[in-house]
Amino acid sequence: MYANRASLIRMLMLLLIWKSSPLPLDACTTAVISGRATVDGRPLLWKNRDAPARHNEVALLTEGPLRAVAVVNAGSRRSAWMGMNEAGFCIENSLSTDLRQPGKKTGPANGLLIKRALLTCHTVADFKRLLEETNQSGRRTVANFGVIDAQGGAALFETGPTSFTMFDANDPAVAPTVTLSVLISPPRPAIFRPTPRQSNSVRSILQNAIPRPVPGSTCKKTKASPSITSFAI
């Protein structure tokens, strides 16, 4: 009882903090997972989008060399916020305002860069080259971009307007693999205990299935009294 009461108090405190916060508590949550840590050896990319635009759509983008499926703000195709193209290249982002630089910037912002990458990039290396090019021409990006590709590439890019830092998820020095040993007890067989009505039904079926002596035969009739207690399934 006390544990439940403590959990309820914690939930109420979090709710009060959320309601009284002067700032919107919206933040995208993302993950880039190397194939070294997955069962089938293929990388994973994950994003939970939290943004002021609450209404989203999944759109087919066909304006570039590559077709792509992307999540966009409902009613708009100008920017994309995560997606995958026909080459197996996938990208998402999370906003990171601490990457801002002073002064007015020009060039693609976060969503425009994602859309451009989806329409042109085949691999993580292609996206890195795109960032190198736009380092010179300029961007308005302040985001962490997660990227994977069909060749097994997986990386996170901290990206400001004129620079970026790449974190390769396949590099053990950057993302070491941690092995966890978990002791799992063998499963116990499930026990089904029939109701009296079910027991009587089964007993009746078994009794009717016992061969009856043919008239004139020398077979002796045996009395059957099966006892039904439980079944292991």
Proportion of beta-strand residues: 15-25%
Biggest sheet: strand arrangement: 3-4-5-6-7-8-9
Low-confidence stretches: 224-233
The gross shape turns out to be: elongated
Distance between the termini: 35 Å
Radius of gyration: 31 Å
Characterize the main sheet: 7 strands, antiparallel
Classification by helices and strands? alpha+beta
Quick gist of this model?
The chain is an alpha+beta fold. Helix content is 25%, strand content 23%.
Explain what you see:
There is one protein chain. By secondary structure, this protein is of the alpha+beta class. Helix content is 25%, strand content 23%. The protein contains four helices and eleven strands; from the N terminus they run αββββββααββββαβ. The protein has helices at 2-20, 110-120, 124-137, 196-209, and strands at residues 29-33, 44-48, 56-61, 68-73, 82-85, 90-95, 143-148, 154-159, 164-168, 191-192, 231-232. The longest helix is centred in the first third of the chain and has 19 residues, at 2-20. It is elongated and about 105 Å long.
Question: How are the SSEs ordered, and which strands pair?
Answer:
Layout: H1 2-20, E1 29-33, E2 44-48, E3 56-61, E4 68-73, E5 82-85, E6 90-95, H2 110-120, H3 124-137, E7 143-148, E8 154-159, E9 164-168, E10 191-192, H4 196-209, E11 231-232
Antiparallel strand pairs: 1-2, 3-4, 4-5, 5-6, 6-7, 7-8, 8-9, 10-11
Name a few traits of the molecule:
single chain, disordered C terminus
